[in-house]
Design goal:
The N and C termini lie far apart (62 Å). Strands 2-3-6-7 form a 4-stranded antiparallel sheet, with no helix packed on it. It has a 3-stranded antiparallel sheet with strand order 1-4-5, with no helix packed on it. By secondary structure, it is mainly beta. A hairpin with a 5-residue loop joins β6 (97-104) and β7. It is built from 1 helix and 7 strands. It has one domain.
């Protein structure tokens, strides 16, 4: 290690020690987030109520933009405690695809159908 590199290492180590020994203070923070959701597919879709017994083929979901915010607070008296809340929005719609409905409903009727599934939101 060179003379100046060695001095830089010790200067950095001293700086870290000083920061670690500094008293903690309460702090509020706000953060934003932005990204993409990569959703899993809808799988094992089964009817309920009067549609019990019917099954729907697996459905693929679109990737979606995700955005949100975080708000948090560190406490003076409990330095190890932080409270944080987060809100975000994303909307992975069902892709346009062909869906298959199979099985028999509660009425005992059986059905098998294939139909195109248009873009629809997951509400």
């Amino acid at each position: 290690m060179g003379k100046w590199t060695n001095h830089g290492f010790w200067f950095l180590a001293l700086g870290i020690l000083l920061v670690m020994n500094a008293p903690a203070q309460a702090e509020m923070y706000v953060a934003g987030q932005f990204g993409v959701t990569l959703p899993n597919n809808f799988t094992n879709i089964e009817g309920t109520g009067s549609n019990a017994g019917f099954n729907l083929s697996d459905l693929e979901l679109h990737k979606s933009v995700m955005y949100g915010a975080k708000l948090g607070y560190y406490f003076d008296s409990l330095k190890w405690l932080r409270v944080e809340t987060e809100v975000f929005n994303t909307n992975p719609n069902v892709k346009q695809q062909t869906a298959t409905i199979t099985g028999g409903g509660a009425s005992g009727k059986s059905a098998r159908s294939r139909s195109p599934c248009s873009d629809m939101g997951s509400h």
